[in-house]
Fold this sequence. Notes:
It is built from three helices and 18 strands. By secondary structure, the protein is α+β, with helices and mostly antiparallel strands.
Amino acid sequence: DRGSATGYPGLEAERAAQFRKIASGLAKRADSSQSVNSNRQSEAGEAPPTRVMEPARPVKLPKWLLAMAVLLVIGLAVGGYRFLNRPAAVEIVSDPAGATIMINEERYQSPFKGRLEAGDYQVKVFLQGHFPKEETIQLAAGQNFKMTAALKPASGDLKLTSKPVGAKIYVNGQARGKTPAELTGLPIKKFKVKFVKEGYKPLEKEVEVFGGKTRNLEFALTKIPPPPPVYRSSGYSSGYSSGGSYSSGGGSSSSSSKGRGRRRGPSIDFSKGGVKVHIPKPKFRF
Length: 286
């Protein structure tokens, strides 16, 4: 006050500096006394005092919030399980179409579209007249799986022979050589096989071809019997014979050769029962 009253403005600044100096000295004394006390305690073997932290008080949450949290955890667990085990989308088609598809003993018709759980499956595709196709597939969760089964046409072979050999072979009307013969690459079905040989009766059989197999077949042909023999003698013409007789319907006419020593010739009888030919036994003289 005096400085300000007397007109000395630097007097307040000087007092403030002195006050700061005194405060700094007091702080140094306090630090020195604390260090001295800690040194004394360490010399005496006493541990320096530690600051004890008070435990935090538990926070109480509302019950509805706890219930929401539990439901959220359960929902996440169920959703994760379903996502990891979601079924796979499967499509299986056959070429040609219309084949039968078996998946682990379950039968379906081609094309097959559906959903299957993740895992291994045994797939078999088969169609009449074609070789079947079998394959093991592995499905992952959520996988899009597509399979096209191309079926090869099945065929079989025939080995044909005949007794006697050399007969012409006709399969469904088409010439296929002579026996013995081997016919390969035939479709799986039934064929009409015909054998023709001169002097023998034609033989026709129905033969079935099996896929992937060769059938050995042998057929015996029946010989055509020769025509009955025709007997003729000199001078025989139009039902008449030299020295013989001709009869029809019970009536008969005969002509005999004049002269001594001539023998009677053969006779033909056209009676109701059929045709009868009589040939006399020759007589020998010595």
